[in-house]
From TrEMBL:
Entry protein name: Endonuclease/exonuclease/phosphatase domain-containing protein
Domain Endonuclease/exonuclease/phosphatase: 54-188
Highest taxon listed in the record's lineage: Eukaryota
Species lineage: Eukaryota, Fungi, Dikarya, Basidiomycota, Agaricomycotina
A GO term for molecular function: catalytic activity
Amino acid sequence: MEGSVPYGTPRQCKATRAVTLISTAISTNSWTQERVESPDVVVVNVRAVGVRLRIYNIYNDCKHDKSLEVLDRDLRRSGAWRRGGRGVSEGMIWAGDFNRHHPLWDEERNHHLFTTSNLKAAQKLLDLTAAYNMIMMLPKDMATLEASSTKNRTRVDNVFCSAEIVDRMWTCTTREEERVTRTDHFPVETAIGVRYEQAKIQRHPNFRRTDWEQFRDKLTTKLNTIERPREFRRGEVAAFLKAKEELERVLGETIEEVVPKTKMAPWKKRWWTRELQEKRGEVRRLAVEVKGLRDGEGAELRERYRRRRNDYAQMIRREKKAH
């Protein structure tokens, strides 16, 4: 699902900096998107068993608080939404790149970031979390960004949830080993314990794995049960249509009985190779080792990790170009 755009004239707005993707395994009956007055905020309402969630995906600019102001207005406007039915609890999640520094989440060693202007800039976010009883789920001191030039690690991304659903939050942590090449942010993984309506899985014939000898034998047997092919004359429209339907029927039955089924993966890339799979595994293993190092340690390991990530990025580029 693409990021939301403002009401009115979407062509006049700048490119969105927030996007929310929803798994095809979740039924579309279980969620709805709400439009808001910003291309940098995406709002999704999720209906799960016994709980309703309102999830905000937010990009807040370094120079202003327009996204937070949109968040505040939307929360005031949607106050009526926070009324669950009998046996249904309500909850909110705010997640994204807030671009704010504060001792409540940044490491103490980054005290040079705790300037008066930065602390003042973070106050709007702190006021909102206090007003709506939001709790920070991403542990303090957990970095989410590594500067490309200085390699200093800071905390600009965050995850907050309302007190009503804290018990449903299983985990909230960074996954540095899943970091995408040529990026400076670390992925943040948040797991929520809810049950939702699943979408019906459509399985398709996998003709590549078909036993064609068995297919021909089965089809031949079925063809012998219907009228043999012949040339139809003008005026035999009904007979022609009946023969066509019979032929389609035996073909369909043969495919259903012989051809194995496969579940199409919408995220699968046709240019993906086994070599890329192995290289990604190597990069992830190095990322886990680097994550366990303290500042100033393992210079050689960090350099090897950097080189492997660059090699991995180049391999992806070559495979895409060659595909």
